[in-house]
Fold these 2 entries.
Entry 1:
Amino acid sequence: MKLVRSVCPFDCPDACGLLVEVEGGRAARVRGDPEHPYSQGTLCPKVNAYERSVHSPDRLTHPLVRTGPKGEGRFRRASWDEAIALVADRFRAVAAEHGPEAILPYSYAGSMGIVQRNAGMAFFNRLGASRLERTICTPAQDAGWSALMGKTPGPDPDEVLDSDLVVLWGINAVATNIHFVKRVKEARRRGAEVLLLETYETDTAPVADRTLLVRPGSDGALALALVHVLARDGLADERFLAAETVGWPEWRARVLAENPPEWAAAETGLPAAEIEALARRLAAARAPFIRMGGGPSRHGNGAMNVRCVAALAAALGAYGRRGGGCFLGTASSQAFDLADWLGEGLATRPARTVNMNELGRALRELRDPPVRAMYVWCSNPASVAPDQGAVLAGLAREDLFLAVHERFLTDTARYADVVLPATSSLEHVDLYRSYGHHTVQRVSAAVDPVGEARPNWEVFKLLAAAMGFEEPLFRMTADEVVDLVLERSSTTGWWDGVDRSRLAAGGAVTIRPPRPPGAPRWATPSGRIELRNDRHEEPLPRFVPSHSHAARGGKLPLRLVTAPALYTLNSTFQERPDLREKAGGMTLKLSPAEAAARGLADGARVVAWNELGEAAFTLRVTPRVPAGVAVAEGVFWLAQTPGGRNVNVLTSQRLTDGGNGSTFYDNRVDVRAG
Ligand code: SF4
């Protein structure tokens, strides 16, 4: 038996260190690496027995070519030579007839590894294919933060240990950031109060002293009213605001005029007296630390929600105090220069951009040229993309050639013309960074490839050769790509003092945001926190209604929250029967009042519906969900759902107010007996 270090590859801020016990080229057991500086030896329930995913009997072990109707999942075995030739031939034919923009790459964070996740970028740039706007997750967060803070990284997440008031704002951290929860518990043990601000009582509620529920999408309204109370009652940190920000006088005047607690009570559902009390509690804290999750950003007003909450932390002066501030992520992407690896210089002409949240529209409505070929890796859009009805109708087009590179026969793979078997993270080389802390780790293959599975980068090299691309990049090994990325990134300033030999040996190393001597503390054009940003079409943080706000025509009675779950991560882990059983299938949570109003009992079969479609659920009646809200946790594979559709048949392709992000939490539904 040998022990190999690795990293959890999934889309999670924790990027846990793994120890793989390898026997006979197989992973006998995967456990947490006690030497990892952040995860310190523990893993979440999803990855605790990762060897079961790696060696699942359902792994794809050889290429497949479709023999039945699209979506049915009937295939014949093919050789790699045949499969690669088929994909290359179809790409050549589509490019010749319609131009290369008729080819659409589609990928996201099925692996967070910098090599495998981005493996197709150079190939598709060289080909001249359409470019995918990869904005399904955090772009509204980024847009909201950068409107205020520019490129300033947030506080170090470990500073939460020094806080005396922790606010978990729109984050079910027990499901999505479990090692941060450990630190929150430690802060609480040291005397901090912990508040949870949420749209329903999640599994994170027991971590907090108190949970405050607000209406989905009303986070910005709450933040503005809190600032109103701070400004009105002389509780804002005027010294910090005068020294470190621009625009406070104008913003102060606006929130005083427009955003009193009584107004916010109507928007948020939180009584005005509670808003007043919360503002006073925040102002009394020595170092309030707001950990903001993705929830508030996944609305039509998501960027403004984030901007308002981040600006609230400025009004409190929290950024100026150790243990205080607003944390969304580490901005560690700034540590990497990926331009050469992504083949930015290989594109010979500009190509159009297709937003990944609008895949349904792209497949059905794009012209000049239409999408006639698509290649999917590290994603499962049939399950996870919004407006599933439109996506599936697009994938079912007979004139669309679809190639999918995957570990399992996912819902998307079932629609493929060619399926290519992919390696798991234990079977290939990669380089990982975390967006929830500051470690970087380089990993080697720990086990032999399962069957004929190949890494993403190997397959794109085969495709490049088949297409006649001769650039040296397409001959590099994955290890050489890691070397290239590290070498190009060495000038970003984040790598000073990094133990390079430890990195080369597979150990986790810590990178830090640069603080050049004499540089302003705030990485904005003015060098201050920009409460007023005249480059932005909205110069001041202000109230913007969500898409499903009544003022924008939201009519159906229930706001649908499509929340993360404990035992799935988007559509990943559905291959594991043990985790499927724990996840308990598609359930919809409603308050007792909403269930009673519809004559529905706990455990009933129900259908949630809106103008986009309908999905079948088992009803859970619980007082943990407020009236006016329906909660569906987890994204299930369609093949395992009762009606062949998951919650994304109810989510729309509408985008956020900044960053062109997804609006998964900003939809309305009603529910009836199924
Ligand atoms: S999913 Fe997240 S918490 Fe779970 S093992 Fe992976 S990185 Fe750690």
Note: The first strand starts at residue 2 and ends at 7.
Entry 2:
Amino acid sequence: MDKILDPSARALLFTEARTANLFLDKPVEPKLLQEAYDLMKWGPTSMNSCPVRIVFLTTDAAKERLKPALFDGNIARVKSAPVVAVIGHDLEFFEHLPILFPHAPENKKIFENNEYATQANAFRNASLQGAYFIMAARAVGLDCGPMSGFDNGAVDKEFFGGTHIKSNFLCSLGYADESQNFPRGPRFEYNEICQVL
Ligand SMILES: Cc1cc2nc3c(=O)[nH]c(=O)nc-3n(C[C@H](O)[C@H](O)[C@H](O)COP(=O)(O)O)c2cc1C
């Protein structure tokens, strides 16, 4: 098997993929959420720590709970999305290291009583996993609308109370109404921002 993606797969994941603004009135089959998760979970994290935690909001009632935390510009976006994923990270991820990283279970100690290392590892790796999730959702045919315009503290209180989980970003999911997408912004060219030493 050739270990490269053909141009149509690259287009689906990258070159033609757009951030969704508003969505068509078309439901997302629940099994697609698991299909996307079952792809993204294989993306790499430090010490295989897998700190991401996800809550999928799939009903109007669940999305209503998010509304008070949203910046105004994101209210319509959330309302029109069939599913909104709350992407967070577990600050006690290290409790699972003996299982997830069995060849060095003692690494758990690196994080015990080390708030800086714990916070940095959880945020870095769950952000990576959130990005893998966007690509995985695209791979199963969904459009994504990531959002950071909301009050993280309010979301943590509403959805993660009594846990060590903190929210990072939201990701609306569904089938984009492409007529409502913003114009595509440019990207830096390779020579503008990359160095080869
Ligand atoms: C982490 C993250 C947070 C974002 N937050 C918001 C947001 O709060 N509101 C919004 O309208 N767009 C938000 N966006 C969308 C970006 O503006 C959009 O992905 C970017 O302009 C690229 O668009 P394109 O994929 O269509 O080229 C966010 C994107 C990311 C990845």
Note: The radius of gyration is 18 Å.
